[in-house]
Every structure is written in structure tokens, then in C-alpha cells.
Design goal:
Blueprint (H helix, E strand, L loop, with lengths): L4 H4 L2 H4 L10 H8 L7 E2 L11 H9 L13 H11 L6 E4 L2 H12 L5 E5 L5 H8 L3 E5 L8 H6 L5 E7 L11 H10 L5 E5 L24 E6 L12 E4 L2 H10 L7 H10 L3 H25 L2 E3 L5 E5 L4 H10 L2 E2 L1 E2 L8 E5 L3 H21 L5
Helix pairs in contact: 4-11, 5-11, 6-7, 12-14, 13-14
The protein binds pyridoxal-5'-phosphate.
Length: 378
């Protein structure tokens, strides 16, 4: 007798669809027979500079240790983070990417009786981890594509255990300033944990800058998560972390896997934190590339959502899927975000100037192709 294993999976998992990552270069190369060297990927908000030379050197230095388990406490990395950000090592929880930490948080604090609040168009991992543990996700309608913080606070009920806020948000790039975040935290009961996901905080500059860490003392229910995958350029190695009260960190550290950050990732992350030049260059290339894309979108008459991250969501119209396909055929990978409920937008990561040019040219060509195929169309 055959068993329906699908029906054996826990309920939340049965209905789960896996996270859709950006298409890898090798996959597109296999599918369309393109030379991998001719493909550009602007689909996963990766750092276009390549890894920091300090990180690379640190990785080479520890290669002989691959036969040993990593330092499960991440001593050096926690020291480096603590020194850089003025926190105590006991406030830090390391993760296999911050994704890992987000999942650990959900597993520690929510169960099938809980509600978890997040925003429409927010990072896809929030509903995913919520559903995986069988909790009820409460998606609050966005305001101008950004988090409607007041409405989110209003969505908190007796059953709410967690609220996820991405600031800046992915895929929309929207951001809230310090005042708005504080006003929001004031509205949230202390028994409800707030996860402030600052995956892109290193790109924030000037007045808009919000530093979740400065709020930790005042709001003990706050957990700030950050990552080495974006501005620090180490997406492949999987290193992220949260900073919270030591009490919350202690709970998270019970549930995370003991060796969730490997030796190479620990070494690279520790080293890159002292590479201030790399960070400055990441910011500068991003700011310049953002202008380049905005200018191009304006010239092409395309609406976009002003972004505080290292990516931008552009409205290419009803035929976004076709445009995406035409881009792929030209060896340009961006991210369609219909799965986020944004079927007209493509999310494009900021690349090097020449990559941005190539994307812009390919996009213009795709728009022309569609216009030629349907001259009366939109
Ligand atoms: C990219 C991203 C992350 C983290 O990714 P990791 O590589 O797992 O650290 C977290 N939150 C948001 C909003 C992101 O865009």
C-alpha cells in the first residue's frame, strides 16, 4: 500500500511553497545555452564589487582548519561586532545568514496558537517561517508600497507574539525614519517581540538613518537582525546575526544549531568588519548605480519605487513576465516579483556601472520588442 507522505507533513508545511531565489547564472547558462561569462546577475541584491580582499585572505588563512568543527560560540566575530557596534557579546546571536536567525526567532517565540504580523510586500521569509511553524500570518496592507506601521500596530491582538519589520524593506526599498520606528515601538505591547530586519542598513545615509541598536535599551522587546550578505559582500558564506537583550539572545542560542556559522564564514565576517574601505566603496558604487538606474527609468518613462537599499523595483507594465523573459534571453537576470503581489514590477539589484548600462540597454530593447509586436498595446 502506498503512503501519501504529503499528508504526513505537518499542516503548515503541506501548504508551503519554497522561497524563490534569484536565478543562478549557471542555471540560465544551461537553459539558454549562453556563455556564463556573458551573463549578468542583478537578481539577489548581492554586492557587485566581489568579496573584500581582507575577507578572502582570512578565508585562505583558515583553510587548513576545515577538518575541525567551527567555534560554536563565534567568539572572535562576536568580539568584533561588539566592538564595532558598542554592544555586549552576550547580546549577539549568530546565524547561517540572517535568514537562519529569523527562523530561530519564530521557532522560539511563536507556535500554532500565535499570530505573526508583517506587511504586505515585505520580505518573503516572514510569511514562510510563520507558516512552517504553523502560526497564523497576519499580512497588513502596505501604504505606498511601504509598511503601514500604525496599521501594523493596530493588527496586534492577544495572540500576537511577533511583528516583523524590514527597514529598508525588500523588495520595495521603502524605509522609515527613526521617529516613525520609535512611534511604532511605543504602540507595541512589551509582551510582543518586534524584529527589526536591518539587512540593508549599511546603505542608509544622511537624515533617514535609523539605527535599531540605539533603541534596544529603551525597547527590551526589540530584536535587530543584520547580515554580511549585502553591503559586506559575503552572501555565499551565510553569516548573519541578531542583537537583542542578553535574555532574548540566551533563548535564541538554545535553539540555533550549535555550528550554524562555519569556520570560513566566521573568519571572513570577522575580517571584513575591519575593511572600512570596502564598505565605503560598496556605498559609493551603490549610490552612483542607483542614480544611473533612476535616470534611465525617467528617460524610459517608467515609474519606480524610490529605494534605500541596493536594489530598485521598477514598474515595467502588464507584460513584466515577457520583459523578464526578453532580458533573460539577453543574458540579464533580474527578479520578477509577481510572487510578492507586484506583477508589474521587476526588482533590479544595483550592479557595477557597466552592468547597469547593459541592463538598461537590454530593458530598452525588450520594451521596443514588445511595442513593435503590439503597436496599439500598453
Ligand atoms: C537578503 C535579506 C536578508 C538576509 O539574507 P541572509 O543572506 O540570510 O543574511 C534578510 N532580510 C532581508 C529583508 C533581506 O533582503
Amino acid at each position: 500500500m502506498s503512503i501519501d507522505y504529503q499528508s504526513l507533513a505537518v499542516k503548515g508545511v503541506q501548504a508551503l511553497s519554497p522561497y524563490q531565489p534569484g536565478k543562478p547564472i549557471d542555471e540560465l547558462s544551461r537553459e539558454l545555452g549562453l556563455n556564463p561569462g556573458s551573463i549578468i546577475k542583478l537578481a539577489s541584491n548581492e554586492n557587485p564589487l566581489g568579496p573584500s580582499s581582507k575577507a578572502l585572505a582570512a578565508v585562505r588563512d583558515v583553510l587548513d582548519e576545515l577538518c575541525r568543527y567551527p567555534d560554536g560560540n563565534g567568539f572572535d566575530l562576536k568580539q568584533a561586532l561588539a566592538a564595532r557596534y558598542g554592544v555586549k557579546p552576550s547580546q549577539i546571536t549568530l546565524g547561517n545568514g540572517s535568514n537562519d536567525v529569523l527562523e530561530v526567532i519564530a521557532r522560539c517565540f511563536a507556535d500554532p496558537t500565535s499570530e505573526v504580523v508583517f506587511s504586505q510586500y515585505a520580505f518573503a521569509v516572514y510569511p514562510l517561517v510563520t507558516q512552517a511553524i504553523g502560526a497564523t500570518g497576519v499580512s497588513v496592507p502596505a501604504k505606498d508600497y511601504g509598511h503601514d506601521l500604525e496599521a501594523m500596530a493596530g493588527a496586534v491582538t492577544e495572540r500576537t507574539k511577533l511583528v516583523f519589520v524590514a527597514n529598508p524593506n525588500n523588495p520595495t526599498g521603502t524605509v522609515h525614519g527613526a521617529e516613525a520606528i520609535e512611534a511604532f515601538l511605543d504602540l507595541i505591547p512589551a509582551r510582543v517581540l518586534v524584529v527589526l530586519d536591518e539587512a540593508y542598513c549599511e546603505y542608509l545615509q544622511g537624515d533617514g538613518y535609523v539605527d535599531g541598536l540605539s533603541l534596544l535599551e529603551r525597547y527590551p522587546n526589540l530584536i535587530v537582525t543584520r547580515t554580511f550578505s549585502k553591503a559586506w559582500g559575503l552572501a555565499s558564506l551565510r553569516a548573519g546575526y541578531s542583537i537583542s537583550s542578553p535574555e532574548i539572545a540566551n533563548i535564541l542560542n538554545r535553539v540555533r544549531q550549535p555550528f550554524n556559522v562555519d569556520t570560513l564564514a566566521l573568519a571572513a565576517a570577522t575580517a571584513v568588519l575591519s575593511d572600512e574601505q570596502y564598505l565605503q566603496r560598496s556605498r559609493a558604487v551603490n549610490a552612483q548605480g542607483m542614480k544611473q538606474l533612476e535616470t534611465a527609468f525617467n528617460e524610459l518613462g517608467l515609474d519606480y519605487i524610490p529605494s534605500a537599499g541596493n536594489f530598485i523595483a521598477v514598474d515595467v507594465g502588464e507584460q513584466a513576465a515577457e520583459i523578464n523573459q526578453l532580458l533573460l534571453e539577453q543574458g540579464v537576470i533580474v527578479r520578477p516579483i509577481a510572487g510578492y503581489g507586484m506583477p508589474r514590477h521587476l526588482r533590479v539589484s544595483i550592479g557595477l556601472p557597466e552592468e547597469n548600462d547593459r541592463f538598461i540597454e537590454s530593458l530598452a530593447r525588450a520594451l521596443d520588442t514588445l511595442a513593435a509586436a503590439d503597436p496599439g498595446g500598453v
